[in-house]
Amino acid sequence: QVQLVESGGGLVQAGGSLSLSCAASGRTFSSFILGWFRQAPGKEREFVAAINKSGKSTYYADSVEGRFTISRDNAKNTVSLQMNSLEPEDTAVYYCAADSSRRYFGPSFRAMDQYDYWGQGTQVTVSS
């Protein structure tokens, strides 16, 4: 069983920055593909970013490309999301997710159904 716990959310003004972190349990963390998703009020959950097992390959949603950076520390069992130049449209609950199936890392990991473990989420609110 894998448990994911997000932290780092909060309230920030537009143009500001926040860093989210997700701590994972499990001895095989380094074999997980990891992702961040978000869900705004009244909207479906959407892909934000994903990272492969080594941390050397990533995918981003077009809406966050160039502003957000996903990274991981396999020694600390954590995955992070650095968010810069935040916009009110970034307001959402942010979730980290993990895939333990050891599959090839490809564009399919933009989809929610590729992940089998989810955190509880952390709220990010960007004021205008």
Write up what this structure looks like:
The chain has 128 residues and is mainly beta. It is built from no helices and eleven strands. A hairpin with a 4-residue loop joins strand 7 and strand 8. The protein starts with a strand and ends with a strand.
* Percent of residues in β-strands: over 45%
- Strand tally, please? 11
Low-pLDDT residue spans: none
- Average pLDDT across residues? 95
Shape type: globular
Distance between the termini: 40 Å
Largest sheet: 7 strands, mixed
Helix/strand order, N-terminal first: EEEEEEEEEEE
Number of helices: 0
- Look at the helices and sheets and give the structural class: mainly beta
- Measured on Cα atoms, how large is the radius of gyration? 14 Å
Roughly what percent helix? Answer: under 10%
Q: What is the gist of this entry?
A:
With 128 residues, the chain is mostly beta strands. It contains no helices and 11 strands. The strands form 2 sheets. Strands 2, 4, 5, 6, 9, 10 and 11 form a 7-stranded mixed β-sheet that branches.
Task: Explain the layout of strands and helices.
Blueprint: E1 4-7, E2 10-13, E3 18-24, E4 33-39, E5 46-51, E6 58-60, E7 68-73, E8 78-83, E9 92-99, E10 117-118, E11 122-127
Parallel strand pairs: 2-11
Antiparallel strand pairs: 1-3, 3-8, 4-5, 4-9, 5-6, 7-8, 9-10, 9-11
Features:
4-stranded antiparallel beta sheet; 11 strands; globular; 128 residues; 0% helix; mainly beta
